[in-house]
Amino acid sequence: MDRKQLTSKQQGTVLITVVMMVALAALIATDIGYRQKMDIKRTAALLSRDQAFHYLLGAEEIANLALVEDLKDDNNRSDPVIKDSLYETWAEEKAPFPVAGGFIQGKITDLQARFNINSIFASDAKVQTEQKARLASLMVGLGIPSEENSDVTPAILVERLVDWIDSDQEPTGFDGREDLDYLNADPPYRVANQLMWDISELMLVEGFTPKDIKQLEPYISFLPPDVPINLNTAEDRILALVSGLNAMELAEKRKPNGSDNVDKEGGYGKLEDLLIDNYKAEAPTTSQDEDGNPIPPDPNEEKGAPVGNFSIHSEYFLLEAKAVINQKTVLMEAILYRETIEAGSSNSNIKIKTISRKLVDPLKRV
């Protein structure tokens, strides 16, 4: 091989090497640029999420203020009446509020308008038969269990809830579930043996499906056992569970000016008036005088009252807040506790406590 051919071959090798080095440098530069772009996006997303979270904390403060002002308004009346109804300012659904980079929106719901799962036990840990029956009726009305050919019934699901909360290891009925049953699961786990505090716990109770939980969610709460149902705010489906109460009439009468015992702003100011106004009298027994003429029922005859723990005001509220910042959605739920004051007492005693606060997956919601 002569010098000319060798030189030409070496030049070709160098050219290929240079091309490969340029390609490799371009590949590295592209990778660096891509990583930098992703880092910038990731940092922006984290900043947006952090900004949204602080906006949500601001929404929580606004909710606290609304609940405080509501109680002050009730207390500052010429005839102070502590009550909560669906026609007060705190219960109104507000339009989105614009903020830098997006908007925030919040909704306050009365948790005492729902069925309290923990109320199937009394404060002394005894099972409440009446409340168990109401919970089973609620499930029946909602079509739970939702799966066809399910091997559980509402009564069985209630029994398993009892086992999840009670402190013993004796299964309730024939289909109860205690530690021995759940320890055979994969992965194994134990029953809580304490009150329930979050809807996510239902996912651990055998027999409940995600669809069942989604259907139940708007109608149940997880509060201390002795917390009453607010009949001024309870939905028709919850009111219908209370035997002896005319749910349809109550839903209409508690509206503004719906009854002489209801304020113009809506809602009853006295529980006794609400029960008297909406008691569903049983059909009168047929009675006749000596001549065979029917005797009308005595209008002064004392009527019974629905069995249960009821009120016209609330202490536990749920804030559902949403912040959308730079097209990033962050959801938060907070349980707020507002201790009720005596009518006519000092407004300085009004305080709001945040019992729990959690971020919610926008896709899951549970």
Structure commentary:
There is one protein chain. The strands form three sheets. This protein has a five-stranded antiparallel β-sheet with strand order 1-2-7-8-9, with helices on one face. Strand 1 (97-99) and strand 2 (102-110) form a beta hairpin. The protein starts with a helix and ends in a 6-residue tail after the last strand. It is of the alpha/beta class and 366 residues long. The longest helix has 73 residues, at 3-75. It contains eight helices and nine strands. Helix 2 packs across helix 3. It is extended and about 120 Å long. The chain is 35% helix and 14% strand. The protein has helices spanning 3-75, 129-142, 154-165, 179-182, 210-216, 236-239, 247-253, 271-278; strands spanning 97-99, 102-110, 115-116, 220-221, 229-230, 310-311, 316-325, 328-338, 352-360.
Key terms for this structure?
single chain, 366 residues, alpha/beta, five-stranded antiparallel sheet, two-stranded parallel sheet, 8 helices, 9 strands, extended
Topology record:
Blueprint: H1 3-75, E1 97-99, E2 102-110, E3 115-116, H2 129-142, H3 154-165, H4 179-182, H5 210-216, E4 220-221, E5 229-230, H6 236-239, H7 247-253, H8 271-278, E6 310-311, E7 316-325, E8 328-338, E9 352-360
Parallel strand pairs: 3-4, 5-6
Antiparallel strand pairs: 1-2, 2-7, 7-8, 8-9
Helix pairs in contact: 2-3
